[in-house]
Amino acid sequence: MPNHKPGNFTRTSRALAAVALLFSLTPIHAQQPQQLNLCIACHGPQGNSQNPQIPSLAGQPKVFLENQMVLIREGLRDIPQMKGLLDGVKDADLIVLATYFSSQTPIRAAAGPVDSETYLRGKVIARNMLCGTCHLPDYAGRQQIPRLAGQQEDFLLFAMKQFRDHAGPGRDTIMSASLYGLKDADLADLAHFLANFK
Question: Cα–Cα distance between 121 and 110 in angstroms, integer?
Answer without folding.
Answer: 17
